[in-house]
Amino acid sequence: MKPLIPKDRIPWRHLALFGWLPSPLKILAYRLLLGYRIGRGVRFSFGGIVVGKVVEIGDFVEIGFLAIVQGRRIKIGRHSSVGVMSYVTCETIEIGEDARIREQVYVGGPQLPESRFVLGSRTIVLQLAFINPTKPVIIGDDTGIGGHCLIFTHGVWLSGLDGYPVTYEPVTIGNSVWLPWRVSVMPGTTIGDGAVIGANSVVSGTIPPRSMAVGFPARVIRSAPDFPPHLSDNERSALVATIMTEFDRYMQYSGVMVREQEPFRLYTAGRKTWRLLWLRGTPASAVVPGRGDTVLAETALSEETITGFRNQGVYWLDLGARTRSREGSRLTEELVLFLGRYGIRLKRD
Q1: 20 to 30 A Cα–Cα from 86, which one of 37, 108, 263, 279?
Q2: pTM of the predicted structure, to 2 decimals
Q3: Which residues of 185-215 are buried (b: 16+ CB within 10 A; e: fewer)?
Q4: Number of other residues whose CB lies within 10 A of the CB of residue 347
């Protein structure tokens, strides 16, 4: 006999009704029939579905092939994505902007009224990770969860009546935390902002901010102010120069022609050319970019300059303030992805 409360892991009826629809028709059905709030530029692949009572999906979100997102309350920020055959289920799901859940990630487990999965902006969860949000799992902005990582909020199998442990506790992971591959996080763990955990470590308890912890169980081996090391302005500038050299090499290898036309770098693919203005301490007022150009600034841009860029239709990447324009050209987005290879993530305007 079935239990009182249905526990359908796979929403077969929803899949049959909506999963096969092309993206435009699926969005239309979601809006008209289910009352979902869906932004512009959203794309659903075949079999990709979102199942919820209150659903808000921001601009340019992508739901991959056979990806399932289901919960009571779901909010997905703009430019985020859920990868192929990933499964995300929780009472409350909150995903920030520019967040990425890669292929075959599993988020789920026994549900409670307070079950909550929060994934911060510009945070990524890599392939084959497992996250159990029976109690709340809160993951901050700009954090990386590596492949095969395991995050648990409950641990029980043998009978508590026989004295075996039964644990239900939330997990909180701060901003700019790095969990490389195969890290296990136990119930009740708190990891502070800027912490790094060694691969294959098992984490429990509290890891302080700006520290490195490794081992089984993980122990802090380095901490602030010595970790992470401070870079001088010259060292930062040299790193940016290295990144741009590698970016140009990558673009040329991919068939894009790169050339100089002072003060711009020109990138040509097919019949289309994009211009990049790289500001290395040069006042923004010294050179005037045009509509559709991209500005890469090493030092923080003034609010007046940014306002001018908005009005002129200029895209910008501000490494000093760690911000970027709301939208971007194809060159802008390609450079953003390449900066991510160096752990550099920029908040959208």
Answers
A1: 37
A2: 0.93
A3: bbbbbbbbbbbbbbeebbbbeebeebbbbbe
A4: 15
CATH code linked to domain 12-223: 2.160.10.10
Q: What is the DSSP letter of 29?
A: H
Residue of 208, 228, 230 lying closest to 220 (CA atoms): 208
Angle in degrees, 0-180, between the axes of helices 233-253 and 330-340, rounded to the nearest 10: 120
Q: Are 218 and 202 a contacting pair, CB within 8 Å?
A: yes
Task: Calculate the average pLDDT of the chain.
Answer: 95
When computed from its CA atoms, the radius of gyration of the chain, rounded to whole angstroms, is: 23
Structural domain boundaries in the chain: 12-223, 233-348
Kindly report the backbone phi and psi dihedral angles of residue 104, in degrees, each rounded to the nearest multiple of 5, phi listed first.
55, 40
What is the per-residue pLDDT across 47-99, written as a single tens digit (0 to 9) for each? 999 999 999 999 999 999 999 999 999 999 999 999 999 999 999 999 999 99
Spatial distance between the Cα atoms of 336 and 317, rounded to a whole number of angstroms: 8
